[in-house]
């Protein structure tokens, strides 16, 4: 239970009771429950979407849902995305790039990264709403945070920390095969439950046979890229992994919906 609460504490702004002094191992192993945190976020989106649609047009609804995605984690991952892209755009070695990620200011490239991420989420949600059935739209909203949170776990497992302190190192040091397996089982179980209830068996097959393997390969590629450019992964790059995973999931679901229509 403590690890589940820790997962909520680190990934969302949801207030969690004081857990006292927490060993680093407990913090690191909380990655196993990232998909459960994603399930809560997805359930919130699933509840809000039909509520918004009762009062607002679909375009405004999707804009509000993007806002909810930002607010639920306090903009933490977008901040990481901006810092990572500022560092990527800079000249210099890994040490200089890591120094740029530590800076409190956001550069032009970072601002562009945030704007493009938000814009693409909005456009992809609109495309999904208009190009797929309402059940596919709702099931994607529910599972979007589950799968994007899950993507972070194999990235943490395969990575080496760029710094010898901080949250990223705690996650990397204590996320092993057991945590990856637990997170994967949870993600698959949630997909079976959600898509089974909605009778979306075709979508379920697509998720398990194509989407999750693609996300795993993306996580592995992100680790390779970060090792080459930053000397390892940091909390900022993990935030970027999450944000890009969201875009990958939405883009793939839009393409799938258009082809299966």
Describe the structure.
There is one protein chain. With 261 residues, this protein is an all-alpha fold. 80% of the residues lie in helices and 0% in strands. Helix 7 runs parallel beside helix 12 and helix 8 runs antiparallel to helix 12. The longest helix is centred in the last third of the chain and has 30 residues.
Quick structural summary:
The protein has helices spanning 2-11, 24-29, 34-55, 58-72, 76-89, 94-102, 108-131, 134-158, 167-174, 177-197, 201-230, 235-260. With 261 residues, it is mostly helical.
Summarize this structure as a short list of keywords or feature phrases:
mainly alpha; globular
Total beta strand runs: 0
| Straight-line N-to-C gap | 42 Å
Uncertain residue ranges: none
Provide the succession of SSEs.
HHHHHHHHHHHH
Shape: globular
Radius of gyration: 18 Å
* Tally of individual helices: 12
Content of β-strand: under 5%
Helix content: over 70%
Report the sheet with the most strands, covering strand number, pairing sense and barrel closure.
none
Mean pLDDT value: 85
Tell me the quaternary state: single chain
Which structural class do you get from the secondary structure elements? Answer: mainly alpha
Number of domains: 1
